[in-house]
């Protein structure tokens, strides 16, 4: 029997022709679709090509998901560019590519982080709250958001980030996203192109833009920039969360090029955060600097360099200094009503919503009022306490928001996720401090990022929660990676060395 006619050859040819046939059929389908619906056809072609690349390189899918989520590109695609609303879910499905590679191809186990039981408990409280909410439709919508952008995202990310190399790639990918967003904000501010949203990645307040259009040469200050989320305070928060990554990367970089890149990225991120003119962001940044100093990551020369950078930013953007000068009024509003009479409306509104959330929690202490339900109660509470009244206002503070909507049980579960994750990061950092200082620095970077979110969360509620759960998943995965590396290194030290390893010659 000749080689060409052998069954083995025919079988291999059939297997080789199958992908080619699938490609031809896909190309024909895309061509037919493009002929009738060009936009949809191009979109499908890009998606198919991208999927093929990710299948060939499963690790790349993890970075793509992180970049698309943190840049808010998935949401922008549907809200700004009119793509279907399931784009975010489709992005999360990309995590199945590396997950299948780990579990089915490499036969590695599913990762269940120590914080998972607390997350499951929080999920149960969300379900219970939605079942008893006064507006079931709104509550169920918020529950679906948590299932997708909270629970599923947490499970997916924690199972595909398994190595120190992937942790570093994720860190640098996030720095790249922050640097690009900061550069866009800087360009928008310097050119005055506030009407341009840069494909949705530099959005601004429509109210402020309308004022500028009516009186472009007046005394109206430039709008506070909102980045890809369109909210100034939230944009400041997600940018400041990246500052620890940049500072740690610059501190531990071996090569000068890496150090310079990290410094430039961090400066651009700080510029983006500064152009939000967020007072809560400023408070969060000060707390971050204090924590890093206590942990020993910032010393005299670092503090001097940071002070110079911040000073230059204050001189370059004097409006921020004006807004920060109102912080004493915010404090006096809490301590003395008369001296706090000059506090602006935003401060009064945030105070009323935070106090209102605590009052709602006091009335519903065990189970809360259900996910997304606090705005239904705010007006009555604001009238009761005599502060600013707005319809459908959010609590604007993380823990009061969780307490009001999830009750004491839900709040305990929520804090449990954070506490377990931070505890695991601390243990991994201590174990790696002498064995692998570079990995210990990675543990510190994620620890500081979590604390930055919590510090800015004093003035922001749990909206855009995908950012929070992405951070918690990455932090939990970092702790797991660090713990495994510490165990491997400790076992290697305890294992008796062979004569060859010990350098003993027979």
Helix content estimate: over 70%
Arithmetic mean of pLDDT: 81
Radius of gyration: 26 Å
What's the domain count? 3
End-to-end span in angstroms? Answer: 57 Å
> Count of DSSP helices?
23
Q: Tell me the number of strands.
A: 0
Mind describing the biggest β-sheet? none
Outline type = globular
List the quaternary state of the chains: single chain
Unreliable stretches: 9-18, 214-218, 332-342
Strand composition percent: under 5%
State the order of secondary-structure elements, H for helix, E for strand. HHHHHHHHHHHHHHHHHHHHHHH
Structural class: mainly alpha
Write a structural description.
The protein is an all-alpha fold and 506 residues long. It folds into three domains: 28-104, no CATH class; 115-160 and 335-506, no CATH class; 168-325, no CATH class. The protein has 23 helices and no strands. It has helices at residues 7-36, 38-56, 58-70, 73-79, 87-93, 96-105, 116-131, 136-160, 164-191, 206-214, 232-240, 243-252, 256-274, 279-294, 300-316, 318-324, 327-335, 345-363, 375-385, 398-432, 437-456, 465-494, 499-502. Helix 2 (38-56) crosses helix 3, helix 11 runs parallel beside helix 14 and helix 20 (398-432) packs parallel to helix 22 (465-494). The radius of gyration is 26 Å and the shape is globular. It starts with 6 loop residues before the first helix and ends with a helix.
């Amino acid at each position: 029997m000749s080689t060409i006619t052998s069954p083995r050859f025919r079988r291999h040819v059939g297997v080789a022709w199958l992908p080619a046939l699938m490609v031809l059929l896909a190309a024909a389908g895309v061509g037919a679709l493009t002929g009738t619906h060009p936009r949809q056809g191009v979109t499908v072609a890009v998606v198919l090509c991208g999927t093929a690349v990710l299948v060939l390189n499963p690790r790349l899918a993890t970075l793509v998901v992180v970049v698309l989520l943190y840049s808010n590109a998935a949401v922008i695609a549907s809200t700004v560019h009119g793509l279907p609303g399931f784009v975010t879910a489709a992005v999360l499905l990309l995590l199945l590519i590396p997950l299948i590679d780990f579990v089915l191809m490499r036969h590695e186990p599913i990762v269940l982080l120590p914080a998972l039981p607390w997350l499951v408990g929080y999920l149960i409280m969300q379900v219970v709250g939605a079942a008893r909410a006064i507006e079931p439709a709104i509550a169920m919508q918020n529950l679906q958001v948590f299932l997708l952008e909270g629970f599923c995202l947490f499970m997916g990310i924690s199972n595909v980030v398994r190595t120190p190399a992937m942790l570093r790639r994720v860190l640098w990918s996030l720095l790249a996203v922050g640097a690009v967003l900061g550069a866009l904000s800087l360009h928008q501010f310097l050119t005055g192109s506030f009407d341009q949203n840069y494909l949705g990645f530099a959005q601004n307040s429509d109210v402020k833009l309308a004022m500028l259009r009516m009186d472009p040469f007046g005394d109206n200050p430039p709008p506070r920039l909102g980045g890809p989320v369109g909210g100034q305070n939230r944009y400041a928060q997600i940018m400041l969360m990246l500052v620890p990554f940049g500072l740690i990367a610059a501190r531990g970089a071996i090569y000068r090029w890496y150090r310079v890149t990290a410094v430039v990225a961090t400066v651009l991120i700080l510029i983006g955060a500064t152009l939000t003119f967020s007072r809560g962001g400023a408070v969060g940044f000060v707390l971050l600097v204090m924590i890093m100093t206590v942990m020993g990551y910032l010393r005299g020369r670092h503090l001097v360099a940071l002070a110079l950078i911040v000073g230059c930013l204050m001189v370059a953007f004097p409006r921020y200094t004006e807004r920060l000068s109102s912080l004493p009024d915010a404090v006096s509003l809490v301590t003395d009503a008369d001296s706090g009479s000059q506090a602006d409306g935003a401060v009064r509104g945030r105070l009323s919503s935070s106090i209102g959330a605590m009052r709602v929690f006091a009335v519903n202490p065990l189970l809360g009022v259900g996910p997304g339900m606090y705005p239904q109660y705010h007006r009555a509470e604001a009238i009761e306490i005599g502060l600013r009244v707005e319809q459908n206002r959010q609590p604007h503070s993380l823990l009061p928001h969780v307490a009001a909507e999830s009750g004491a049980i839900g709040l305990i579960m929520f804090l449990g996720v954070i506490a377990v994750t931070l505890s695991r990061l601390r243990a991994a950092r201590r174990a790696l401090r002498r064995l692998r200082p570079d990995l210990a620095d990675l543990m510190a970077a994620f620890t500081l990022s979590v604390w930055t979110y919590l510090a800015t969360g004093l003035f922001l509620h749990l909206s855009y929660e995908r950012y929070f759960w992405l951070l918690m998943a990455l932090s939990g995965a970092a702790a797991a990676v660090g713990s495994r590396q510490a165990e491997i290194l400790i076992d290697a030290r305890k294992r008796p060395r062979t004569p060859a390893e010990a350098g003993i010659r027979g």
